[in-house]
Design a protein that fits this description.
mainly alpha, Cytochrome Bc1 Complex, Chain D, domain 2, 2 domains, binds heme C
Length: 136
């Protein structure tokens, strides 16, 4: 009995170790890097204004100025651009970030190469600042 359960624990450990070891070298492991991350930047006035600038240059054409998913360039794409103000309520910082660097999908480009990591974090802060619904 004791022997059997320790074998099971050993097996579990081996599976976990293999996952971590395989992961360290692969791009597919972005989830481990960002998934649990908190936004490393403070939402200062400067960060927010840089975020706004980046958002307006790279995102608002499709997602709309207020990030409600209603930009003109978003019309006629295979999917409607996400209402980011609503959606971000359910996303941790890390999850929001991952969604910006995932593979292109239905018209949503990947910002893995186009934006620097700290630029993406600025955009995360800026989009969150657009959520002004006091009632939540
Ligand atoms: C060319 C149009 C376009 C641009 C530019 C664009 N998006 Fe999107 N985005 C989309 C579309 C369309 C979707 C919906 C994709 C889907 O539902 O499959 C989307 C979805 C998303 C999602 C949700 C993805 C998911 O997995 O649910 C996030 C987050 C997002 N966009 C953020 C951004 C940010 C931040 C920028 C600017 C840095 C940006 N997008 C620029 C079109 C665009």
């Amino acid at each position: 009995m004791a022997v059997r359960s320790s074998t099971r624990i050993m097996k579990t450990n081996i599976v976990l170790l293999t996952a971590v070891a395989t992961c360290s070298g692969l791009a597919g492991c972005t989830h481990l890097k960002y998934g649990f991350a908190k936004n490393p930047l403070e939402p200062t006035a400067e960060t927010l204004s840089q975020g706004k600038d980046l958002y307006e240059r790279h995102c608002s054409s499709c997602h709309g100025e207020g990030a409600a998913g209603d930009g003109n360039a978003g019309k006629g794409l295979p999917a409607t651009p996400t209402n980011l103000v609503m959606a971000q309520r359910n996303w941790s910082d890390g999850v929001f970030h991952i969604r910006m660097i995932a593979k292109p999908k239905n018209g949503m480009p990947s910002f893995r190469e186009t934006l620097l990591e700290n630029e993406r974090w600025r955009v995360v802060h800026y989009v969150r600042s657009l959520d002004t619904d006091e009632k939540r």
